[in-house]
Design goal:
The chain is of the alpha+beta class and 231 residues long. The protein folds into two domains: 2-90, no CATH class; 111-226, no CATH class. Helix content is 40%, strand content 14%. The protein has six helices and five strands. The protein has a five-stranded antiparallel β-sheet. Strand 4 (77-81) and strand 5 (87-90) form a beta hairpin. The relative contact order is 0.10.
């Protein structure tokens, strides 16, 4: 048996520190406040939120150590699972509302893109992939800048170049799914996890072999758009 426990007027910075505990290198204690911008949450540390949790009589109940939830001023819901390291930002969609992918849906789409455009779930996956790719590109760019500073650029293939080729290769695999929604979902799930790991650990994939298919002009344009946030 579990009961809901609400906590109003809690600051966002303190909620995030509890949801994502991190040791301070200076004091060797857990940080009491974390910066929301680290999670792409557009609010300050002092923003007041409504935190939601659960207290269960059974200590083995998954909700005891399950999701930590917080309601932002714009009514979006933050959802964090303990020890998962992932923060979901959710919003309620209106009846009949269409979720759009990161690319334009038009008559020029291939079969896979048409399938994605027709599905809210797949469109959501595509948005998640686009965000994960932007973060991975940002990390790869920092790696390249650091390599330039230490003058390793002559012997090191660009991380950004490797990542662009890696993403293009994945697009080919995704497009091979055509209208198979389970296949498309599986491809997105694996790629999002891989890109998130790259953005956190900084390890980009090795360069593809010369026998791999070349990146087409259309694919390059599509990939480059993913690195630019929509206005």
């Amino acid at each position: 048996m579990c009961r809901k426990k609400d906590s109003k007027n809690k600051t966002l910075g303190k909620w995030m520190a509890k949801a994502f505990p991190v040791d301070s290198p200076e004091t060797h204690t857990f940080l009491s406040i974390r910066n929301p911008s680290d999670f792409n949450v557009p609010y300050s540390e002092a923003t007041l939120i409504s935190a939601v949790g659960y207290i269960c009589s059974d200590l083995q109940e998954k909700w005891n150590n399950g999701p930590k939830q917080a309601i932002l001023p714009n009514k979006k819901l933050l959802l964090a699972w303990e020890n998962d390291g992932v923060l979901l930002i959710l919003r309620k969609i209106k009846p009949g509302e269409k979720i759009l992918p990161s690319f334009k849906c038009n008559e020029n789409n291939n079969e896979t893109e048409e399938t994605i455009c027709s599905s809210n779930a797949l469109s959501g996956w595509d948005q998640s992939m686009a965000e994960a790719f932007r973060k991975a590109i940002a990390r790869a760019s920092r790696n390249d800048a650091q390599a330039y500073v230490f003058q390793t650029k002559k012997t090191k293939v660009s991380d950004v170049s490797n990542l662009m080729k890696f993403q293009n290769k994945w697009l080919q695999k995704r497009n091979n799914c055509t209208v198979d929604k389970e296949c498309i979902t599986s491809q997105y799930s694996r790629q999002v996890n891989t890109l998130e790991s790259i953005s956190i650990e900084g390890k980009t994939p090795d360069a593809l072999s010369e026998n791999d298919e070349k990146i087409t002009k259309e694919d390059m344009m599509y990939i480059s758009k993913l690195t630019k946030k929509k206005k």
